[in-house]
Amino acid sequence: MALAHTILATLGDEAYSGYDLWKKFSQTSAYYWQASQQQIYRELGKLEKEGAIASEIIPQEGRPNKKLYKITEKGIEKLKDWLLEPAEPMAIREELLVKVIAAELVPRSVILQEIKRHRQIHTQQLSVYKEIEQQKFPEQVDQLSFKQKCFYATLRCGLSYESYRIAWCDEAIALLSED
Amino acid sequence: MALAHTILATLGDEAYSGYDLWKKFSQTSAYYWQASQQQIYRELGKLEKEGAIASEIIPQEGRPNKKLYKITEKGIEKLKDWLLEPAEPMAIREELLVKVIAAELVPRSVILQEIKRHRQIHTQQLSVYKEIEQQKFPEQVDQLSFKQKCFYATLRCGLSYESYRIAWCDEAIALLSED
DNA sequence: TTGACATACTCAACAATTTGAGTATACTAT
DNA sequence: ATAGTATACTCAAATTGTTGAGTATGTCAA
Questions:
Q1: Which of A55, A72, A93, A115 is the most buried (most CB within 10 A)?
Q2: Taking CB atoms and an 8 Å limit, are A76 and B105 in contact across chains?
Q3: Which nucleotides of strand C come closer than 7 angstroms to any CB of the protein?
Q4: Which domain holds residue B172?
Q5: Which helix (H) or strand (E) holds B118?
Q6: Do B90 and A94 lie within an 8 Å CB cutoff?
Q7: Same domain for B122 and B75?
Q8: Comparing C-alpha atoms, which of A126, A120, A118, A115 is closest to residue A160?
Q9: CA distances (Å), A109 to each of A103, A115, A123, A162, B60, in order?
Q10: Which chain A residue shows the shortest CA-CA distance from B148?
């Protein structure tokens, strides 16, 4: 599964503690994979057991010690093997659409309000991504390294995802508001 | 969770057997919720246990008997209650993006090939949705009933999702092909 | 006549995800 | 003073999702 591989990919760059990974996941990585704290800790435990990552306890003053994880040779091999396997596009599972399907059971305003709320959330997220784009990628894209381009591609995916969602919300609101 | 509610919403229109639901899910409903046969049968069992749906065994000649499920009053209430609760946009979990993040570990052609393969799958799915749009909604959209408009809105979501994915694949291929 | 495919469903096991509580320390603002 | 927030992690339980086998019958084409 992909959480393990996302962690391995992240640890490929530098060492992280579980907590650091969680923060990174809730911030920058949110646009390609989402995971809770508990999931990350458990996955780290599994990966260490199988030898794909190794930890070192860093004593800290004034705050709890942290366990810093690094990827091992074995982990890099595991990641490479996975990269060579094909992956299927992920299934769509969107609660809002299920609600739209059943919308006739409640007053029309209920579903319209809900779509508007989602539009608002996506607009918010879009502006977060736009901020990141401006901060991290102000230069010409062809000046970037391959690695940076890869990261930029995922950010562009997040950006266009939010734009598509907003456009759909507008279309649906127009369609379902008519009398 | 939404699978139960998707089933309830579907049974709101007419009675279905588990097998019929599965077929409907793999065909028309694929663009808002996906579920396997086993998930559907298990969920039907749970829903019947809690009294949200009721079944009737239909003896058939020449093929196995089927268990037809209908929604109950209790099920309709359950569905309505759920419709009134807000839902959060679903988390993005896209394996392809994890692969893009880790792409530097393998030859560039590996990830480019994979993106092209995904582009092909999305193009295929887009044409399926376009076919459905032409077959089921050739008329003026404002002529449709509210219920039909709701269904159409979900189809439009599927259509624009596939278009967005194809556009992203093109962007990513262009970005990552440069030297 | 054999094998593929469709109908119709059940059972079991496992993997992944979510939810919530719990432990501990330290900093900061009211 | 104390409440909120951040750091840092663990444990348990329930739900949801995937994988694969198993049971039965009927149709259709090679």
A1: A115
A2: yes
A3: 6-13, 15-21, 24-27
A4: 95-177
A5: helix B108-136
A6: yes
A7: no
A8: A126
A9: 10, 10, 21, 23, 44
A10: A101
**Structure confidence at residue A11 (pLDDT):** 94
Rounded to whole angstroms, the distance from the CA of residue B104 to the C1' of nucleotide D16 is 34
Kindly tell me if the per-residue pLDDT of A68 is higher than 80.
Answer: yes
Domain count, chain A: 2
Tell me the two tokens of residue B57.
């065994």
- What six digits make up the tokens of B82? 């759920």
What's the confidence (pLDDT) of residue B81?
A: 94
> What's the CA B156/C1' D4 distance, rounded, in angstroms?
45
Copy the structure tokens of residue B49: 């246990």
Shortest CA–C1' contact from A35: which nucleotide? C17
Residues B20 and B52 in one domain: yes
DSSP single-letter state for residue A31: G
The answer to whether position B89 is within a domain reads no
Per-residue pLDDT at B30 = 65
Query: In degrees, to the nearest 5, what angle opens at C-alpha A147 toward C-alphas A159 and A72?
Result: 115
Amino acid letter, B120: Q
Strand segments, DSSP code E, in chain A are 53-58, 66-71
Cα separation, A112 vs A107, in Å, equals 9
Write down the pLDDT at residue A178.
Answer: 76
Say whether B9 sits in a helix, a strand or coil.
helix
Phi/psi for A112 (5° steps) reads -65, -45
* Dihedral sign of CA atoms A143, A124, A104, B57 in order: positive
User: Residue B3's pLDDT is what?
Assistant: 93
Residues of chain B scoring pLDDT < 50: none
pLDDT for position A80: 95
> pLDDT digit string (tens) for A78-88?
999 999 999 98
Strand runs labelled E in A18-172:
53-58, 66-71
Q: Which uninterrupted H or E stretch holds B53?
A: strand B53-58
- Could you say which of B51, B84, B117 is where a domain stops? B84
pLDDT over 60 at A29, yes or no:
no
pLDDT at A159 over 70: yes
